[in-house]
Amino acid sequence: MRAKPVSLGSVGSLALVAVLVSGCAGNQSGQPQAGDTRFVAGDGTMQVFAAADRKPAPAIEGETLDGGTASLAAHKGKVVVLNFWASWCGPCRAEAPVLKDVAAKTKGGVEFVGVDFKDRKADAQAFERTEQTGYPSIFDQPGKVALAFQGTVPPAAIPSTLVIDEQGRIAARALGAVRYQDLMDTVTKVRDE
């Protein structure tokens, strides 16, 4: 099979697609099959960006799993934690209690929004009923929300967590399941800036 020539403008798109087609699990049975679009798992390390280096988050909006609408614009002037997850992802299940707890402890000064990526809606709704996160999740089956971050700070793992500052800029990113203290420290730092 011969590869088609790729223009330089397509390189960034291809890089994101390469990440998207990697598997969430580390063993052979968890590896993606043709057409699979799961992310790879990161190590959960929180990367915080200096204020001068922060890039604006794209405008995102979508229907939530409960039939409402969620957007970054609705939380303008507040710190927002944007978590990309899926019900089929083991690390997402593991980090759910951490997100729920930090969301509850920072409520009022920080808003949380989930982005359910490449999932079956019924499975995602069952996950939300079980975890009772306390915050809305956009149902993003086609992955459009994740792709909107291409060119800024992409959520290149599943789960991924982005912290958006009060000016709407990406202040921090964790690839993989977040750790409680890392998330709490980062959210508090960004909120108190």
From TrEMBL:
Keywords: Cytochrome c-type biogenesis, Disulfide bond, Isomerase, Redox-active center, Signal, Signal-anchor, Transmembrane. It is found in: Cell envelope. Residues 51-192 form the Thioredoxin domain. Residues 1-27 form the signal peptide. GO terms for molecular function: isomerase activity. PROSITE patterns: PROKAR_LIPOPROTEIN (PS51257), THIOREDOXIN_1 (PS00194), THIOREDOXIN_2 (PS51352). CDD domains: TlpA_like_family (cd02966). This is Thiol-disulfide isomerase/thioredoxin. It comes from Nonomuraea roseoviolacea subsp. carminata.
